[in-house]
Amino acid sequence: MKRRSLFLISAMVFGFAFLYVPIISLIVYSFNKSKLVTVWAGFSTQWYGALLQNDQILQAAWISLRIATLNATVAMALGTIAGFVLARFKRFRGRTLFTGLVTAPLVMPEVITGLSLLLLFVALESIIGWPSGRGFATITIAHITFSLAYVAVIVQSRLADMDESIEEAALDLGARPLKIFFMITLPIIAPALVAGWLLAFTLSLDDLVIASFVSGPGSSTLPMVIFSKVRLGVSPEINALATILVALVAVGTIIAGVAMLRSQKVRERDVQMAAADN
């Protein structure tokens, strides 16, 4: 029994080390004074200053943040509608087809998705004249196409676990379905919406393959710029940029976790107060 516990602990430590030691080393070497990323020459923050003066990276980061924010917002709205339909409407004509269309981006190779969207945009441009070239709009549409599938799955899972008797009680009291959705359903599934938004934002910010197909001159995203620079060798500026991204993701995850925890505590307190009043 002790050997098994020791083995499990060792496997867990090895697994976490395999995942996080490279990230920690990247953060450490972002403060390296040397231009060689594998040779430590002393502590310095000069590469963060150099990063802030790199117009190419700053422009790509601004484009990626705008695309990721717009993508996450639209994907959350569309994914919520799709997840609600899948969770609440059990039988309707075309449900199987609808389910397949919603979940297909989850298993579709990114190369196929990117190529198919590129062909679609080229065909639309030749038929109706839009979009005129590839750029911000085409990248955003492409990201929404696969991001909403993740949001739909998250929302569907949350709605499947939700107690529908609360909504039925509101209907019995005369509330309209639309008011029930905004006043009861939406606040309950709010943590799932936040999780879906964050996931869609992260997927968009991280995407390289699909964006490479549907982007054009002057619309290179941050992953595309990083990939092009890494092909020539990793520079300390890239380490500094990666450290900033890791910090932003960590802070965002912590804030979202605290907000969802507080929301859950408030909801549990309201349930307890309602039970006490009854």
Please sum up the structure shown:
This protein has 278 residues and is an all-alpha fold. It has helices at residues 2-29, 46-52, 55-88, 95-107, 110-128, 136-160, 165-172, 177-188, 190-206, 209-214, 222-230, 236-277. It folds into two domains: 22-52 and 236-278; 54-233, MetI-like (MetI-like fold).
Describe this structure in words.
There is one protein chain. The chain is mainly alpha-helical. The protein folds into 2 domains: 22-52 and 236-278; 54-233, MetI-like fold (Orthogonal Bundle). It has helices spanning 2-29, 46-52, 55-88, 95-107, 110-128, 136-160, 165-172, 177-188, 190-206, 209-214, 222-230, 236-277. Helix 3 (55-88) packs parallel to helix 6 (136-160), helix 6 (136-160) packs antiparallel against helix 9 (190-206) and helix 7 (165-172) packs antiparallel against helix 8 (177-188).
Distance between the termini: 50 Å
Largest sheet: none
Uncertain runs: none
β-sheet strand percentage = under 5%
Domains (count) = 2
From the coordinates shown, what is the CATH architecture of the largest domain? Orthogonal Bundle
Output the number of helix runs: 12
Report the CATH superfamily of the largest domain. MetI-like
Give the overall pLDDT as a whole number. 86
The tally of beta strands, per DSSP, is 0
CATH class of the largest domain: Mainly Alpha
Roughly what percent helix?
over 70%
Order of helices and strands: HHHHHHHHHHHH
- What structural class is derived from the secondary structure elements? mainly alpha
Rounded to the nearest angstrom, the radius of gyration is: 23 Å
CATH topology value of the largest domain: MetI-like fold
| Outline | globular
